[in-house]
Specification:
Residues 286-442, 543-719 form the Glycosyltransferase 2-like domain. InterPro entries: Glyco_trans_2-like, Nucleotide-diphossugar_trans. It comes from Floccifex porci. One of its GO terms (molecular function) is glycosyltransferase activity. By secondary structure, the protein is of the alpha+beta class. It folds into four domains: 2-109, Immunoglobulins (Immunoglobulin-like, Sandwich), CATH 2.60.40.10; 113-250, Immunoglobulins (Immunoglobulin-like); 268-494, Spore Coat Polysaccharide Biosynthesis Protein SpsA, Chain A, CATH 3.90.550.10; 542-794, Alpha-Beta Complex (Spore Coat Polysaccharide Biosynthesis Protein SpsA, Chain A), CATH 3.90.550. Helices cover 29% and strands 30% of the residues. The protein has 25 helices and 40 strands. The strands form eight sheets. Strands 29, 30, 31, 32, 33, 34, 35, 38, 39 and 40 form a ten-stranded mixed beta sheet that branches. Strands 18, 19, 20, 21, 22, 23, 24, 25 and 26 form a nine-stranded mixed beta sheet that branches. Strands 5-6-2-1-9 form a five-stranded mixed beta sheet. α19 links the parallel β30 (571-578) and β31.
Length: 814
């Protein structure tokens, strides 16, 4: 067993009493349990495991489930005389740390003020400083920049979650928002200082800091991975690429989006037209709000955003569970004369669900809108909802949303959502805001459940889905809701409500239990994301269908990865030979067919036509499930087949796709976007292996319009039902067309990122480098356009019409 300690911190002051340690521990079976002893007594404490790619790489371990990193924080009731940490595996144990009183006194830290500068850069007279600072004073840490003459310089300050310290459990709850990003304009020849004021004052010479970071960048010729990883909060939210852009001083994302929203928001002239609009169906919409010690400014802005609606048939139902009378005083003083605003002061705080239910009891409307007490509606929000209801009395409607920065009032982080997507919803509550629900559906579904407080809306929307057909759910692809970001909100600071994420996990599990899906829910790769591992039912045969032409080394690598890694054993491999010429190719076929009873070679004699070849190959298959696989792929994870099969066995699923990487570990395929590049294109091409994607879209299982047949599992009965591949599409878009036919037949196409392979990108096919091939490609475009004009015109329902279809996907369309 190997071990290493990265960090130890021991504080025992009047305000802070804790011991924290992080490092890594590794043994051959990769399963470690930990025992913590304080002053000779074993204690129960949480150990946070996390990934350490550097460790796995060093010891050449390829096991994505292995989490050798650990972080432990113990809040102390008494001063330490002895601390011992032991790691246990199935075969051995190792003492990771054993400190007596003398050693503890040497690391004991009485300093109650800590800070760190994590990144610094200058470009075009614009400066950025990124770091964290924490102090035990009750006020927030203050920051200011002064020039060489001592004059204070105006700054733009963003307080962010310091995720590194959250991960290492180095923070108490009131210190979580300790990260900072500071922008200011200045003279590159001047000398600036950063003054951080907490319980005491720290002065940092930014010129010295600049020299350090400049050397790092110059020595590595690029921004180092270490430097990137140090800014966890920004990377988590925006991704590595955007972080690099920020250090190079492109315009920050929120400024770009803020300008986009200001350009695309409803105009005053449009609002006046909306106010004059008479709908045939004008439902009363009851907006429910549960207030709890809401700031006066936030409360007023929230109420005023309802008063400013261009649609007027609404009521605002406020249930106030505050411990003071501030909300009540503001209501009585400013809003009590408006009969549309209903207010009830609760005798006690009933919790978020109880307070929401109290507001729900006040409603008289046909529809109910869910509204958080410190957020904002756009002035056209209710108009757009009622406009959609003219077509159909939907069970529920949801909209796109963004976030508003409390300090700067700038719009940021837009969530342009897909249409209803149940697998994605089971991975993350993407529906969230603004949600408007038919009152009859609420009566059928039931009220908010306090067992899931913190994720009561997640539980609620899952139950709504269970009681509502998918074609009775409508998504409005417009930003109609602003989620306020401030230190106490989950929008700005997910770690501020960690209990909510555990409640979300339980909400998903309860949903699965209710509908009879056997699966286990676990936390995903970021707070708010989840993963479901479904049980495989029985032991059905999988027929792996691999078209092949020459390229014996590629084919052998593909087959050997299946034979050596795949844990699911009931499969056969059918290689479809397509006009190879080399003797070594046929020698290889003979060799593997003789050696393995479950490998068969069949021979296609006609010209290359990917669709026809697969349709030919499946005729020889014995399995209940077909796994269409390119010969230039390589399995990464051993449970790859289990992951695909567990989803493909569901009655609502027709086919399952996977996450594919290039050999350099950048992404080759994370689903297909219809319309990208004209007809269809892969999502997230070139993204890094550890990227989460836009709102978790890389790492979350979800329905998509299409996935690539480079690795696609499909039910045999579904393949036959849709008559296989369209043989008019010889090379291009045949897999997309195939998926479209499966969807038309009423099945979902699921992208499962937990099934992973390398893809060496169509080596067998060749390039479009002749007039004949170019002509064929253009004809295939026309065939697809003829077969599927509606989706090309309206847009991919699993993407969003506000997002770009150019090379860069998941960014706003200018």
């Amino acid at each position: 067993m190997r071990k290493y300690i990265d960090y130890i911190k021991y504080k025992y002051t009047e305000n802070e009493k804790y011991f924290c340690i992080n490092g890594w521990c590794l043994d051959k079976d990769n399963k470690i349990e930990y025992k913590v002893e304080i002053n000779g007594k074993e204690i129960s404490t949480d150990v946070v495991p996390f990934n350490r790619n550097d460790v796995l790489k060093k010891f050449e371990i390829q096991n994505e489930k292995c989490l050798p990193g650990f972080a432990i924080r113990v809040d102390l009731e008494e001063e330490l005389n002895h601390f011992k940490l032991t790691g246990y595996s199935s075969e051995e144990s190792v003492v990771i740390l054993d400190y007596n009183r003398k050693k503890l006194s040497q690391i004991k830290d009485q300093d109650e003020f800590d800070y760190e500068i994590e990144a610094f850069d200058i470009k075009d007279k614009k400066f950025t400083v990124i770091g964290w600072a924490k102090s035990n004073c009750k006020k927030e840490v203050e920051y200011k920049i002064v020039d060489s003459k001592g004059n204070e310089v105006p700054i733009e300050l963003f307080r962010v979650v310091c995720q590194k310290q959250v991960l290492y459990k180095m923070l108490s709850e009131n210190q979580i928002n300790s990260g900072f990003v500071i922008h200011f304009k200045g003279d590159v020849n001047d000398k600036y200082k950063l003054i951080i004021k907490g319980k005491e004052e720290k002065i940092i010479d930014l010129n010295s800091v600049n020299n350090i970071f400049r050397r790092i960048i110059q020595n590595s010729h690029k921004i180092t991975p270490t430097l990137i990883k140090q800014s966890f909060s920004y990377v988590r939210k925006n991704g590595i690429k955007q972080f690099i852009k920020r250090l190079k001083f492109n315009v920050p994302d929120q400024i770009i989006y803020h300008d986009w929203f200001m350009k695309h928001q409803v105009t005053k002239e449009q609002l006046e037209i909306q106010k004059q609009k008479h709908f045939d169906y004008q439902p009363l919409i009851s907006i429910i709000v549960a207030t709890y010690n809401t700031k006066e400014e936030h409360f007023k802005e929230m109420v005023n955003s309802v008063l400013n609606q261009s649609y007027s048939n609404w009521e605002l139902c406020i249930a106030d569970g505050s411990t003071d009378n501030q909300v009540q005083d503001v209501y009585l003083k400013e809003y009590s004369n408006d009969t549309r605003i209903l207010y009830k002061k609760l005798n006690e705080n009933l919790g978020i669900s109880g307070n929401m239910n109290a507001a729900l009891e006040m409603t008289k409307g046909d529809y109910v809108g869910l509204f958080d007490h410190d957020d904002l509606l756009t002035p056209d929000a209710l108009f757009e909802v009622v406009n959609a209801l003219q077509n159909k009395k939907y069970g529920f409607i949801y909209t796109d949303e963004d976030k508003i920065l409390d300090q700067t009032k700038k719009y940021d982080n837009p969530n342009f959502k897909p249409d209803i997507n149940i697998d994605y919803l089971r991975n993350v509550n993407y529906i969230c805001h603004f949600l408007v629900v038919n009152k009859e559906l609420i009566n059928k579904t039931g009220n908010f459940n306090s067992d899931f407080d913190g994720a009561q809306d997640y539980d609620f929307v899952l139950r709504l889905y269970e009681n509502c057909d998918e074609d009775n759910i409508y998504h409005i692809p417009k930003i109609l809701y602003h989620w306020r970001m401030h230190a106490q909100s989950t929008a700005e600071n997910p770690e501020s409500k960690l209990y909510a994420f555990e409640a979300g996990k339980r909400a998903i599990q309860s949903h699965l239990d209710r509908i009879g899906l056997k699966g286990t829910v676990s936390m995903g790769k970021s707070l708010g994301l989840y993963r479901i591992k479904y049980e495989v039912k029985g032991n059905p045969m999988i027929s792996v269908i691999i078209p092949s032409y020459e390229h014996v080394k590629d084919l052998d690598r593909c087959i050997q990865s299946i034979l050596n890694k795949i844990t699911y054993k009931n499969y056969e491999i059918i290689v479809i030979e397509n006009n190879s010429k080399k003797k070594e190719t046929f020698d290889y076929y003979h060799k593997i067919e003789q050696k393995y009873k479950n490998i068969h070679i069949v021979y296609w004699k006609d010209k290359f036509n990917y669709s026809a070849i697969n349709n030919f190959g499946v005729k020889f298959a014995k399995g209940e499930y077909f796994l269409l696989l390119n010969n230039d792929t390589e399995v990464i994870n051993g449970d790859c087949f289990d992951e695909m099969l567990s989803y493909c066995q569901r009655e609502d699923v027709g086919a399952v796709g996977t996450l594919l990487f290039y050999p350099d570990n950048t992404i080759q395929h994370a689903g297909v976007i219809i319309g990208k590049g004209g007809i269809a294109g892969h999502a997230f091409i070139g993204s890094q292996k550890d990227d989460l994607g836009y709102f978790g879209r890389i790492v979350c299982t979800q329905e998509l319009s299409a996935v690539t047949a480079a690795c696609m599992m499909v039910k045999k009965e579904v393949y036959e039902q849709v008559n296989g591949f369209n043989e008019e599409l010889e090379v291009a878009f045949n897999d997309v067309d195939f998926c479209m036919k499966i969807r038309k037949a009423g099945y979902h196409i699921v992208y499962n990122p937990n099934a992973k392979l390398y893809h060496f990108e169509s080596k067998s096919r060749g390039l479009e480098n002749t007039a004949e091939k170019v002509n064929r490609f253009n004809n295939e475009i026309k065939t697809f356009e003829k077969n599927w004009p509606e989706i090309l015109e309206k847009g991919d329902p699993y993407y969003n019409i506000n997002l770009s279809l150019k090379d860069n996907d998941y960014i706003v369309e200018e």
